């Protein structure tokens, strides 16, 4: 299965990248960085660091959009730390950033590969994906599917009362993606908040004891402190790797096809994902919205694939 991961690492982004790189069913054609959790100069560096931690310096990493389509960039150092990957001791990656822009890489790859054979996995703001769709209008018809982490319905928001961070950072981009016509799978907070990094699960990862797993434990110990304080839970939600887990084991998840629209104008609810869960409108169903997950099954998969990175 050929995929492109579009990302703004982020400790949970790192978990998604490691899960993908440890899975032989997936061919990661490239990783495209976008500004989000931290500015672009850090997200592209962090993507390369995670690849190197995983023993995969062969992965092509491209830098993309430095800012959202319309509004100034909002970042989340309060969650992820100043580097975006606080926790382990970081280093300068040994392999270079690719020449060229991430948006050009996405467009050129989708045009070069057979239609319906490449899946996009955006786990940050959707700026790069929207720019690619705008640059090449035929692109949507060539995408196998877009499996994204973003939004919330029953869980509402995590950066504002009604908006999830990835969508809130660039709601105009999210609106373009949701309306593009490609098959979309959406991992909202409703499902990611059920994938909790409990102490027992972190200790299981610690026991793997390879470079990637050791770094992941250090990331999670730092990362979960914010959510533990916020939600009063044992651990925090591991959002982004749910996208990769769905590709590998979709039977771990349950949801339904819904219409999803993005609020872009309201001062109160800007960035909200308006999910017609109950089908009260006649708007076309444009996304498979997940709500339930087998969390133990997810962590079984995550631990198994982290062990592959040894």
Report the total helices. 12
Give a short account of the largest sheet. 8 strands, mixed
CATH C-level class is Alpha Beta
Q: What proportion of the residues is helical, as a percent range?
A: 25-40%
- What portion of the residues fall into strands of 2 or more residues? 15-25%
CATH fold name, please? Inosine-uridine Nucleoside N-ribohydrolase, Chain A
In CATH terms, the superfamily is Ribonucleoside hydrolase-like
| Overall residue-averaged pLDDT value | 96
Task: Give the helix/strand class.
Answer: alpha/beta
Report the end-to-end length measured between terminal Cα atoms.
Answer: 22 Å
Architecture, CATH level 2?
Alpha-Beta Complex
Number of domains in the coordinates?
1
- Output the helix-strand order: EHEHEHHEHEHHEHHHHEEEEH
Over all CA atoms, what is the radius of gyration?
A: 18 Å
User: How many E-type strands?
Assistant: 10
Described by the principal axes of the CA atoms, the overall outline is globular
Q: What oligomeric state best describes the polypeptide chains here?
A: single chain
Strand order within the widest beta sheet: 3-2-1-4-5-6-10-7
Low-confidence runs of at least 5 consecutive residues: none
């Amino acid at each position: 299965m050929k995929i492109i991961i579009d990302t703004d690492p982020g400790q949970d982004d790192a978990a998604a990248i490691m899960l993908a790189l440890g899975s032989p069913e997936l061919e990661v054609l490239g990783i495209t960085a976008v500004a989000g959790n931290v500015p672009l100069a850090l997200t592209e560096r962090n993507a390369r660091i995670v690849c190197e931690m995983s023993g995969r310096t062969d992965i092509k990493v491209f830098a993309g959009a430095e800012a959202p389509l319309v509004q100034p960039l909002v970042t989340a150092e309060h969650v992820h730390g100043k580097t975006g990957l606080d926790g382990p001791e970081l280093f300068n990656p040994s392999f270079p950033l690719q020449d060229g822009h991430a948006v050009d890489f996405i467009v050129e790859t989708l045009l070069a590969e057979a239609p319906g054979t490449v899946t996009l996995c955006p786990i940050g703001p959707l700026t790069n994906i929207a720019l690619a769709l705008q640059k090449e209008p035929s692109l949507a018809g060539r995408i196998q599917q877009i499996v994204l982490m973003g939004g919330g319905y029953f869980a509402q928001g995590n950066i504002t009362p009604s908006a999830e961070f990835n969508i809130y950072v660039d709601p105009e981009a999210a609106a373009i993606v949701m309306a593009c016509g490609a098959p979309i799978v959406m991992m909202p907070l409703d499902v990611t908040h059920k994938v909790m990094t409990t102490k027992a699960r972190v200790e299981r990862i610690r026991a793997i004891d390879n470079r990637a797993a050791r770094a992941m434990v250090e990331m999670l110990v730092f990362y979960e402190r914010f959510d533990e304080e916020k939600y009063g839970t044992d651990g925090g939600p591991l959002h982004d790797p749910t996208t990769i887990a769905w590709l590998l084991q979709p039977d771990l998840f349950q949801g339904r096809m819904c219409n999803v629209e993005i609020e872009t104008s309201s001062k109160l609810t800007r960035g909200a994902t308006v999910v017609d869960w109950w089908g009260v409108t006649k708007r076309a169903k444009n996304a498979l919205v997940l709500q339930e997950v087998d969390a133990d099954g997810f962590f079984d998969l995550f631990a198994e694939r982290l062990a592959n990175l040894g």
